[in-house]
Amino acid sequence: MKNGLRTGAPALVLLAATLLAACGGKEAPAPAPRPVWVVQVQAGAGGGALGFPGDVHAREESPLSFRIGGKLVRRAVGAGDRVEQGQVLAELDPADQALQAQAARAQLAAAEAELARAQGERDRYAKLVERQLVSRSAYEAQKAAYEAAAAQVRAARAQSDVTRNQAGYTELRAPRAGVIASRQAEAGQVVAAGQSVFVMAADGGREVAIDLPEDRVGRFRVGDPAQVELWSVPGQRLPARIREIAPAADARTRSFAARVALDDAVQAQVALGQSARVYLPGEADVGHLQVPLSALQRGEDGGAAVWVVRGGQALRVPVVAGELGSESVPVSGDGLRAGDWVVAAGGHLLREGEPVAPVDRDNVPVAAAVQPQAD
Q1: Architecture of domain 61-93+170-201 in CATH?
Q2: Is the whole-model pTM more than 0.85?
Q3: What does the pLDDT profile of the chain (375 residues) look like in tens digits?
């Protein structure tokens, strides 16, 4: 039995060696290409544009309020409604104003009656003083009483005019044509004089409100050119100019409010409240190529690089980066050229020469990035 075991052991070893050799002859399956989001390198104009988020406003936005206080009994329009100049927007309860106007008219009538009496006394004393039947001082007293009554009439007439005007103030009218941007009061509410009831965006210019950071506001001036890209229409930039920059920073955000006015030719393409991004020219940069910020990778030596997809493979290309913008960065490098496809996300997971499957932001394969490029 022992001899049988000794005879079988070499056979088992030989069989195991044969199986290992057979397994070792098989090639390992190739790894599946890693999907990557790619963006095409764009040629700049010598400077990196800085992008700032904002939203579209009317150049003239006016809070509308009553000139007197009272109970709001009717609201004729709402947010988003279009109004014409002189159109009634809301009304206050006119009862109190009507009573005040009635009281002012009664005071005026009483003052006019007193003036008529004082005038009669003055004229009578004037005749008596000519006949030397009364003293000169008595006449002067009647003359002063008449002048006081005349002053009372003027004051009562002015008060009557004021109350008459206030009766008209119970109607809030649109100062010009435009759109109601917001509503801030409802029927039945008691509002104070000057309390905002509506905010109206007047017809005319449209502009984008942005905030400039404290460390960059000094680079821009009123009148500088700008470009506006609407969030709903990516890739299309509309011409604009900086119209105003706040002279002081906001105490909470430490940023400077700015307004960028769109050119008249493109006013009809924007709507109030739309989200937008304003691109302002940056300083002179080291290169003329723009890549997304997310495409820039930092090596252990502190140098910058981007992953370029060529022929379906990821290649690490060293670059020199310029000033960082809000979304992109200008770069230069001998191995990078306009039209290259760079990896915009996930570059830290790639290896040199790794096969990749490039797709765009809509997850559509990019065939141009897998085709070999001629030198």
Answers
A1: Beta Barrel (2.40)
A2: no
A3: 444 444 444 444 444 445 444 555 555 566 678 888 888 887 654 445 678 899 999 888 889 999 989 999 999 999 889 999 999 999 999 888 888 888 888 998 999 999 999 999 888 988 888 888 888 898 889 889 999 999 999 998 998 888 888 878 888 999 999 899 889 999 999 999 999 999 998 888 899 999 998 888 888 999 999 999 998 888 888 999 999 999 999 988 889 999 999 998 888 788 888 899 998 876 544 446 888 888 888 877 778 899 899 888 889 999 888 777 667 778 888 888 888 889 988 788 888 888 888 888 888 888 766 665 554
CATH dotted code for 34-48+286-369? 2.40.420.20
Report domain extents, the chain: 34-48+286-369, 61-93+170-201, 95-168
- Token reading at 179: 């759109």
Nearest Cα to 292, choosing from 335, 253, 331? 331
| CATH class held by domain 95-168 | mainly alpha
- Enter the tokens of residue 103: 């009281």
Q: How far apart are CA 343 and CA 304, in angstroms?
A: 14
Residue 200 in contact with residue 173, Cβ under 8 Å? no
